[in-house]
Amino acid sequence: MSEKLLKLGIPKGSLQNATFELFAKAGFNISDQQRSYFPRIDDDQIQLILLRAQEMSRYVEDGVLDAGFTGYDWIIENDSDIVEVCELLYSKSTAKPTKWVLAVPNESKTKKPEDLQGGIIATELVNATKKYFQKKKIDIKVEFSWGATEVKARLVDAIVELTETGSSLKANNLRIIDTIMTSTTRFIANKQAWKDKFKKEKIENISILLNAAIDARTKVGMKMNIAKKDLETVLKLLPAEKSPTVSNLVNSDYVAIEIIVDDDVERRLVPALKRAGASGIITYPLNKVIH
Amino acid sequence: MSEKLLKLGIPKGSLQNATFELFAKAGFNISDQQRSYFPRIDDDQIQLILLRAQEMSRYVEDGVLDAGFTGYDWIIENDSDIVEVCELLYSKSTAKPTKWVLAVPNESKTKKPEDLQGGIIATELVNATKKYFQKKKIDIKVEFSWGATEVKARLVDAIVELTETGSSLKANNLRIIDTIMTSTTRFIANKQAWKDKFKKEKIENISILLNAAIDARTKVGMKMNIAKKDLETVLKLLPAEKSPTVSNLVNSDYVAIEIIVDDDVERRLVPALKRAGASGIITYPLNKVIH
Amino acid sequence: MSEKLLKLGIPKGSLQNATFELFAKAGFNISDQQRSYFPRIDDDQIQLILLRAQEMSRYVEDGVLDAGFTGYDWIIENDSDIVEVCELLYSKSTAKPTKWVLAVPNESKTKKPEDLQGGIIATELVNATKKYFQKKKIDIKVEFSWGATEVKARLVDAIVELTETGSSLKANNLRIIDTIMTSTTRFIANKQAWKDKFKKEKIENISILLNAAIDARTKVGMKMNIAKKDLETVLKLLPAEKSPTVSNLVNSDYVAIEIIVDDDVERRLVPALKRAGASGIITYPLNKVIH
Amino acid sequence: MSEKLLKLGIPKGSLQNATFELFAKAGFNISDQQRSYFPRIDDDQIQLILLRAQEMSRYVEDGVLDAGFTGYDWIIENDSDIVEVCELLYSKSTAKPTKWVLAVPNESKTKKPEDLQGGIIATELVNATKKYFQKKKIDIKVEFSWGATEVKARLVDAIVELTETGSSLKANNLRIIDTIMTSTTRFIANKQAWKDKFKKEKIENISILLNAAIDARTKVGMKMNIAKKDLETVLKLLPAEKSPTVSNLVNSDYVAIEIIVDDDVERRLVPALKRAGASGIITYPLNKVIH
Amino acid sequence: MSEKLLKLGIPKGSLQNATFELFAKAGFNISDQQRSYFPRIDDDQIQLILLRAQEMSRYVEDGVLDAGFTGYDWIIENDSDIVEVCELLYSKSTAKPTKWVLAVPNESKTKKPEDLQGGIIATELVNATKKYFQKKKIDIKVEFSWGATEVKARLVDAIVELTETGSSLKANNLRIIDTIMTSTTRFIANKQAWKDKFKKEKIENISILLNAAIDARTKVGMKMNIAKKDLETVLKLLPAEKSPTVSNLVNSDYVAIEIIVDDDVERRLVPALKRAGASGIITYPLNKVIH
Amino acid sequence: MSEKLLKLGIPKGSLQNATFELFAKAGFNISDQQRSYFPRIDDDQIQLILLRAQEMSRYVEDGVLDAGFTGYDWIIENDSDIVEVCELLYSKSTAKPTKWVLAVPNESKTKKPEDLQGGIIATELVNATKKYFQKKKIDIKVEFSWGATEVKARLVDAIVELTETGSSLKANNLRIIDTIMTSTTRFIANKQAWKDKFKKEKIENISILLNAAIDARTKVGMKMNIAKKDLETVLKLLPAEKSPTVSNLVNSDYVAIEIIVDDDVERRLVPALKRAGASGIITYPLNKVIH
């Protein structure tokens, strides 16, 4: 195996496919995605290892991995001493941070954390939950929950559980009484690896490419031809913070305009441009956008 | 809930995924596509509701929905009083209208509708079938069929069934003796909603974006560089009804040509352009094409 | 059926989806991909037939098919007399040729082919295996293996089996002692069909479109704006063998640069260009690249 | 086809597997259970046809079928004129009748049917729902619902929906305000078929065998040896309404006792018998029990 | 590995589950049925190996296996020199022999084998097909078919294919013109193994247990109590060739009758016995029946 | 809810189906087995709750549950203070205790636990692993592993993992260097619940019924008729520790023999009895056997 090798942890489970898609969009070919814990990547200087997000930061801290992707929640839960390279927002639809909430059955009399004094809490996030209650000086017992935590809300006194949309809590007739923590995905590195010139540059390159791919996900390229007389009107419709590329055509009455816009801006812009006389409007997908 | 809200019905079942893909291509992010009857969309002014195509026009007529997507067949079957916003051809491969046909077993003696006098017909499209026979003054009994209609062709005297390719009829050894109705997908609106300024504009914007996405599905962007001396020859090869964008390059012996073509034209054009001396020919995918 | 019809065999099994995706990228719409042995394609002059790669070359030689896709290994195994139109490398990740290897259990004393004298070999590739041993003047019995060949390595004396990554052999604790043959995918034609003007041109057009789609898979389009003063520096970063398209902008201090690059070059180029002062760098996907 | 043939409808869907299992336990071999609408049965005098429970009674009334299995609810909904042969309780766990209930969202102000005056009801059971409201002289509009009725409770004013355990209603946060109808499975026959000697006897034989298999499902055979001196004590423990078979053994101090008991009685009896000195207690499964 | 070990081949594929169920009913516990090619069995003197029925007889002949289960068809196709231990009819529903038939498209002009002179036949059963035509002195070319043979009937001139019910041929619109061979499952042994005392006895014991389990599949135990006065009448109803076990009860007016009957006899007997005054009739399942 | 209610934890996951089957065989009907965490059981005095085996003993100790099923390993890992009611061996094939083993890669230089001094161990069984090494006075770091522990053997220095057959370790090329613990399933109770008369009796009854069902799994009932003259010979063949039930028949030359035997004894006995002249030998399945 090459001396110059970056051991990179990929989170197994809910983020796994999103991460592989992001690497693909960033320009890497990964094979054996579903079958192996060591998927192959077409870069000899990177070795991928699939691990659960929950244990990622421990293995990065131990130096078993040079870098990896995990949630802010598990970095805190594991109290890991690592370098945070960047936050990764994946895509607009998953960009909202997840939350760990304290929840009780709808029919429970518990209204606030203090009402749980002396009770039992079931959660996968034991340490962070203990700290939360210690800070509030509330005495509780925290039991580690191996999945299906919502179900336990009626066996013990309350649960601390992850929620993205709140739909699972709702389906179980649970009520949120407080938020313990919010979390997003982080790209983290081992402290020793970060001091290694090769590894640091490799990690930064991956960071640039992934972020360029993330930015491209919610943007499109847009092109149109404009009669020179309409140019000023059309330019006013375009987002102010972006400067479009305007190029002359052989037919000198017209110019071609090209611009990169957010896809929700596109939805608004397309009908407006049509009315303003733009012709041959097309939009096309992007792989990467670098600011 | 916002006052400004469009309640929009999406057809559950065979068109569901095609519709979601179309919305995605039109620039909307939809989540919970498979799990919920109320998928979330990243536009606060739209609420999506999944319903069967069969019942869509009734709920649009009742005002339970402001607008929705369904087949022409079910609008007629339900005799619904609604506004038809536009026809949606989804993509070239599904652009052929579906047909409701009157079919009998291959071994049946029935040759024409009149031979069914006094018989029983099984169909999901009861009302349209009754009207068809009333118009021909043929007396029949129509039984509603809950699926697997082809199987019933040998229990009763004939069936009226939907067919796209005829392959299911063929597999069941059935013979078509007449076509009752042809149908395509329609975007429909409630009459009151259509009088509401906000709702009408919202519906029209959705219609523009979906149609632009549909058009983009079967087109590609094509670029190439041409020596100025070959320009005339190459331009003759291009489809007459489209005007290519021709731009000067820094190297003044060449121009760059860009044009949007149908993908079946592309298949013919690529080898021809290669022979005509075009260099650096590439084609790329499009998200939207607005005429 | 049209007189002008090309009967084209598509390999069923592991290459099936890759082939359909390639045809899609080449601009063909194919339906009924999974359900039928005669998938429909939107070109009336082509009829597709799904057959196993193993038997493809026999049916092409017999004239049952005009052309088809199969592996070099099965052309040799069947000793088929056909025209090889071109090699198809599908995509970079599958571009490595597959190998047929002679393998024995890790614990076996067999070190070289000669040690197998008088033994039994299980394989799916009976004829090529016999030839290999005949050439070496080693006397063995070859039994045809219906799948699960790795398992038989411990029932008989050795196996000859296909390997892409060696992982299946490793999982079964087998050791490779020689390579019998390497193989890639080939587009082949019947000798009579190749003499028919219509069929030959049709086959060549398909070959051009498929290869253009294959080339596009590992390339991206890249655009950026460059201040004229930085142009020389930037041009040096770009791959020497490609000439970028440089066009003037209305803002005369800048030029727009557009270039097609391999996706592994893109991974290296993006950070370098960013540092060299390029602005508005984007990359976008391609459908076809014709040299 | 034989003159002596009983055309028998099997309900497709939720009761399908339970019905096939019952026929198997009754001694019939049925093949092609999942693949065909005409499963084969090893009795040349019976032809099976799979149809939805909803349409069964119509085809039995029309004489398309001689007999069939369906729910009481759909007999009433279709207002079918047929002979009811017997009620079938399948097994203890499914023996509770299903109910069609009138339900509204938890948050609705509707408390009683009268509050729905002038509203819209969505249901699959249109006719029975209309009759229910006509009888109460409440004016409502009933819309036929193609599945997912619970979801519609928040689109219209109320729904009428089937419920076995109430869990689906609960999951959708709905509240029951009345029961429209209760229903169990019925074995029904066409009136003409019931007058045909062969068909009536065939239907009755099937009824005997199915009911014997149903009875056997919740019973077990129990055997034990008892010292003659303990016989009286043990007999008192056994259910009074059953008479055990007592037989002498070669060893004349003991008798063997055999009895058929309900499986919930067995649960109580086994520990009690053990304490009373019974030896060699075993229980074994039964195929049929005929009273 | 024990000296006393029987290597036993189990057919992979369509017979696999039926074979495992039969071994279970015969009293063997087999684990890893789906995951391994070497399923474990709770008898240290047996080693199971999963192989395709097609290649079984070759490996038995070679001595790689001591014994195995396969079809008569593949013994003939492979021309294998083995000992046939017994025929296994598995169960009544699968007891019908399978057939290899010569089939052509419905629309073909071929009426009899002779019409195929000079043509191409596709089949998996190459050798047996060649022998069939050689015997009839018809000159044909036989191409080996890797599955989906029915589909090839329209590519070549005819096919030879396996059929159990004829439904697959029917679905492909094919017509049978002759039967080449009929086949059932056989338990076969290697000739050397058959001379080994330990192996022969082991094979025979397995044969006894499997056949006892097969017999039990279609039989039930039946018990009832009869008043002595009705005994003669009841005995006449019972199958003549079986002698029931009649035992006295403590209550001397009654006797208990026990008898083993075929399950199709049971269907006829149950209603008749009920009418003849038998009380407490029960039937129960059997594991093994030894004649 | 009834005052008299036993809250009973069922282990979710690998033992779940085996446990439900055992309850079914013990005579309980459980529904909603797969869909709900609170499956319904037809005994109003029992409430079932699905929890992971790993957390079961904690919730039993806390009194959240009255009783439950879990492994000995997790009782020790959690250091839970509970009552052990009985060991449950489920069935012969799963009766072997599972083992937690210390394993290293085949290629590792580690030969014994002491070689791991100063290293990292990944395991799901953190506490028991720590105790094991403390006792041996070896200093190691134990990291909790969220699944896929075998994969981590090459990231850290060794793993402690569960093994039933050793096949997963073998597939990952790992070598066992010691056994940390062996474990079987236990029925456990809360200490307070065990002092409650109702709950203790309920728990004991369940224990009796489950054990009777377990015993019945590997036994069969066997019956045969014997001529009185052969009786002595036959009796000698039967297992000495069991006394058969011998009863007179009406035909006084014969007796009927009935005996319960282990299924592996049955495999040996059947051929022997046949040779000894027994007639009408049958074996039948059992639901429960109580000693």
Any key phrases for this structure?
homohexamer; 291 residues; alpha/beta; 5-stranded mixed β-sheet; 34% strand; globular
Summarize this structure briefly.
The structure is a homohexamer of 291-residue chains. Chain A has 291 residues and is an alpha/beta fold. Helix content of chain A is 32%, strand content 34%.
Strand order, sheet with most strands of chain A:
4-1-5-12-6
Specify which chain pair forms the largest interface: A-B, 26 and 30 residues
Low-pLDDT runs of chain A = none
Looking at the structure, what is the overall shape of chain A?
A: globular
Order of helices and strands of chain A: EHEEEHEHEEEHEHEHEEHHEHEEHEE
As an assembly, this protein is: homohexamer
Strand content of chain A: 25-35%
Rounded average pLDDT of chain A: 90
| Beta strands of chain A, count | 17
Considering DSSP H and I runs of 4 or more, what fraction of the residues of chain A is helical? 25-40%
Number of helices of chain A: 10
Describe this structure in words.
- The structure is a homohexamer of 291-residue chains.
- Chain A has 291 residues and is α/β, with parallel strands linked by helices.
- The first copy, chain A, has ten helices and 17 strands.
- In chain A, the strands form four sheets. The first copy, chain A, has a five-stranded mixed β-sheet, with helices on both faces.
- In chain A, a hairpin with a 5-residue loop joins strand 14 and strand 15 (254-262).
- In chain A, helix 1 packs across helix 8.
- The longest helix of chain A has 21 residues, at 197-217.
- In chain A, 45% of the residues are buried.
- The model of chain A has no long low-confidence stretch (mean pLDDT 90).
- Chain A binds chain B through residues 92-93, 165, 167, 220, 225, 247-251, 256, 263-264, 266-267, 270-271, 273-274, 280-285, and chain B through 26-29, 31-32, 36, 40, 42-43, 204-205, 208-209, 212, 216, 221, 245-248, 255, 260, 284-290.
